[in-house]
Amino acid sequence: MTNKTSPREQALAFRSLHVPGRPLVLPNVWDVASARLVEDAGAAAVATTSAGLAWELGAADGDRLSGGDAFAALTRIADAVRVPVSADVETGYADDAAGVGATIRAVLAAGAVGVNIEDGLYGGGASLRPVAEQAARIAAAREAAEAAGVPLFVNARVDTYLRGAGGLEETLERAAAFLAAGADGVFVPGAVDPVTVKALAEGIEGPLNVMAGPGAPAVAELAALGVARVSVGSGIAQAAHALVRRAARELLDAGTYDALAAGLDYGELNGLLGGSSQKA
To answer: Which of 116, 146, 147, 209 is the right S-S partner for 229, CB 3.0 to 4.6 Å?
Structure first.
């Protein structure tokens, strides 16, 4: 995609979109087609979902996708859109802080200007990475971005509610430590109760990102609670894959095609990706 502004300008534009009470809304994407569709729908920015990206590339979510595969996919996505791109890099595709710095350099090289880094752990044992260790990883991310001259938006994901590993007090403590280490915003998936969201928005000294979905308050209500960013994680990818299974089962079991009736027009989708509107 041509006519994109410089990485620094993209990063500054992305930062400016995080406004409490007027949140940035991100329908998360996992490949070029979903990114173009989301951009075409009017999104001010594009953010990847690590789960959707992993599934697209044949891996399970949870730090099982290699950084190289993720960066290659991210490059294709960033090249396909004009709006700023934020990358979900799970725990950082690295064992230590120095490795996280290398990941950030690869993310910037791919064309993204935002990043999510989570504090959850996989593989058994503790649910969350120790605060000091995670803070060091965030500091390494900030240092790498500053060295590159790009004001990367570092979104520190705190998995206390998602993992059932802590409540408001622990979440606020982690958020404060991560912001002090260089994070720009805090992402608290699993917290959608209005009372909790309001307390988080008031207690965190930075933009709050909430992960929404069925059963969560509408964007307007989250905005009124002080949220600055609303994303949906793997929700859209899950819905898309549910359609694949539903259509396949209908075709194989009943021999009918009703699930395909609401599909996108061939010409519209093909044209969105730079092709002809006529079937070959």
So the answer is: 209
